[in-house]
Amino acid sequence: MATTTTSKPLSSADTSAPPAAAESFDFSLDAAAEMTTLPLSGDQLRYCSDALECFKSKQISSQQTICHEFQTLQANRMRASDIRSRCTVAFDNLNYSKNRYTDVVPFDDNRVILKQCTDYRSSAKGYINASLVTTSESVSRFIATQGPLSHTSEDFWEMILQYRCPVIVMLTRLVDNYHTVKCADYFQAEDGPREFGNICIATKWIQTADNSLILRCLEVKHKESEEPPLSVLHVQYPEWPDHGVPNDTLVVRRIFKRISAVPLSLGPIVVHCSAGIGRTGTYCAIHNTIQRVLIGDVTALDLVNTVMTFRSQRIGMVQTLEQYLFCYDAIVDELENLISYSNSS
Fold first, then answer.
1. What is the per-residue pLDDT across 33-60, written as a single tens digit (0 to 9) for each?
2. Domain Tyrosine-protein phosphatase, which positions (predicted)?
3. Which of 135, 173, 219, 288 could form a disulfide linkage to 238, CB 3.0–4.6 angstroms apart?
4. Is the CB of residue 339 less than 8 Å from the CB of residue 299?
């Protein structure tokens, strides 16, 4: 993969609990440039081959079945009254303005809770529009969240530090083609450190690839803290259109390859677009399914159930039929790639 690299030194079940382990992970520029694909074991090759046959058979002979699966998801969408009763903190008067979209809010039972909230009024309850999303402890955990607002960027970085999140996957532009702001600029610090309230971020290196991925290694810390900064890999894919899908699956699969090697013992992977459900849910479903296939979890073959599980943890994950079909495309393409790579090795 050809890359243009810019690297310059710069100046300087309790949902609120951080992960128990805090290992380190190599986010050096050389490590980021390497692909993480490894030859499959015999068992993994069999798991992938069986899964590929299952997913591809639906693609080729029964696309109507896939469409029916999505119709089932839509038919089982949560009612507005149920959303209200399950999202009471999000709709509190003190928190309402922290939601980019008032119809996309986290459930009370799995929302991220900030310990050191910038809003010290007790009724705010450490609120951020972010949800803990997972299917099991055997695969990556995610925080699915909205694109930060200008007045929630400090909260966003507080969440990153509290949960020791090693990776942020950003699947949106800051401003779309219609000049609509989709996300606040919470991460660009190429000209020196930036401060968000009590938090400082600095850019260690930047790598721009010809497949439209922009990688940044960011260092994050509390300004007054003597602890070393937290290194965070920021993966930005600005070309994924809102409510749509990319032209092909290659870049999304490259993101998976780059971050699937991050140890599960580190904090959850943060994924966001603008609302934090469409593109975000699509990526999470792809990443989660491939990981589960590789460990022999046969329930991974039931994509509709995976998305239903995600929707029980955050409203509307995987928004459109086009995005649901794209999940199948990306999973099939990646399984074929893994099998081919393994056989050639």
1. 554 566 789 999 999 999 999 999 988 8
2. 66-334
3. 173
4. no
Instruction: Name the CA dihedral angle for 188, 276, 288, 241, rounded to a multiple of 10 degrees.
Output: -80
Strands 194-196 and 269-272: unpaired
Q: How do residues 276-294 score in pLDDT, each as one tens digit?
A: 999 999 999 999 999 999 9
Residue with tokens 């299917």: 135
Where would I find the H helices in the chain?
29-33, 42-61, 63-75, 80-86, 153-163, 250-259, 278-294, 303-311, 321-344
Burial of 224 (0-12, 13-18, 19+ CB in 10 A): exposed
Q: How much is the pLDDT for 221?
A: 96
Q: Cα–Cα distance between 163 and 124 in angstroms, integer?
A: 19
Is the model's pLDDT at 29 over the cut of 70?
no
Question: Which CATH number covers residue 141?
Answer: 3.90.190.10
**Domain housing 92:** 44-344
Amino acid sitting at position 30: D
Structural domain count, the chain: 1
Q: What is the pTM of this model?
A: 0.90
Active-site annotation holds for 54: no
Query: 48, 165, 273, 327: which one is catalytic?
Result: 273
Largest CA distance in the chain: 60
Q: Are 308 and 264 in contact (CB under 8 A)?
A: no
Q: Which helix (H) or strand (E) holds 112?
A: strand 111-113
Residue 331 forms part of a structural domain: yes
Report which residue type is found at 156.
F
